[in-house]
Amino acid sequence: MKNLLLGLSTAELKLLAKELGEKEFRGKQVSDWLYRQGRREISGMATLPVALKAKLEEGYQVGRSLVKKISKSKDGTFKLLLQPAYGVPYAGRFSCCVSTQVGCPIGCAFCATGAGGFKRNLSAGEIVDQVLTVGEAAIKEKLLAADGRVSHVVFMGMGEPLLNYDATLAAVHLINGELAIGMRNITVSTIGYVPGIYRLAGEDLQLTLAVSLHAADDALRRKLVPGMTRYTLQEIADACKHYFRETGRRVTFEYCLLKGVNDGQADAAKLALLLQGLNCHVNLIPFNSVKGSGFYPPETFRVTNFRRVLEEAGITVTQREQRGEGIEAACGQLRRQALTGQGDLRIK
Ligand code: SAH
Ligand code: SF4
Hints:
This protein is α/β, with parallel strands linked by helices and 348 residues long. The protein folds into 2 domains: 3-61, DNA polymerase, domain 1 (Orthogonal Bundle); 69-340, TIM Barrel. The protein is built from 12 helices and 13 strands. It has helices spanning 10-19, 25-36, 50-59, 112-115, 124-140, 165-177, 194-203, 218-224, 233-247, 265-274, 300-312, 333-340; strands spanning 3-4, 60-61, 66-72, 78-83, 95-97, 101-103, 118-121, 152-155, 186-190, 208-212, 251-257, 280-286, 316-319. The strands form 4 sheets. A 7-stranded parallel sheet has the order 5-8-9-10-11-12-13, with helices on one face. It is globular and about 65 Å long. The two termini are 42 Å apart.
């Protein structure tokens, strides 16, 4: 959990500004944003230089509580149930995961979306609507404060964004421009559609490109990702090198760990070799169970060992937290459940 800015006096904030290599008066500005303007997010402190905001965000959060419940009485008094900033999931950060297609044509073996087949592309409007609707629902459910907003958008819902390129790009521009969500807070995840990666590199955007690998060996990858066999892992890695050269943005590789399938130390060693010399970061995603898929989540020690091999090869690794367990939160699970009455892959 990050340190809280709330609680620091103006004098202390001035000292902090100096420690971060900025002029003292910046501390006074932070104080005004915090205590006079009541900003909930560092990103909303408009007079601060971008670099200072980034430095602050690395180690600090504002630390405002959320209103969970309001009880009003007729005489105008009211009582608030507050949830303190500590304990709020990713306080100050509210991510929204959007879909770009209904279903998906790629058909990954372990993905509930893939199993349901492809229905249609979503339009840019339909993609942006998801961000607005999620923000609205989160405020209604008191997961976000009344003046809170979605801070991050990840294109990791149903569908393959780069196979619906124009709508995805238009939505990215709307989310960044009209909804004022920083490009660096937008992530587009692809299964590794190589022509799309080259095209996106040409747009020179500061968004994060995430590429789902799931295997470091072409034969295994063909089994897990049957709908994208035209491009080898080496071709995908080369496209990502190009992406970094063009945009200066480090690529994230996603790797869904499937027990006994791709989670061995030998798999990790092959992955390290594939990514050698690539400016990247690996995000390990322990499989989120999909009943009937025939795949299972790996034991914790296997995840730890896998991670260690990568780190020893000098690769930065993050691990996706298991969140949303029990609510069919993985890609496509909720839709599948709604359509079939249960989250079971065998039921079509
Ligand atoms: N089609 C794109 C974006 C949507 S999927 C892509 O595949 O990258 C977003 C991520 O969720 C992918 O890395 C995908 O492999 C992962 N995913 C899908 N189903 C999952 C599950 N049941 N458990 C864990 N990760 C899953
Ligand atoms: Fe499609 Fe991504 Fe699911 Fe694969 S993991 S089926 S590409 S949504």
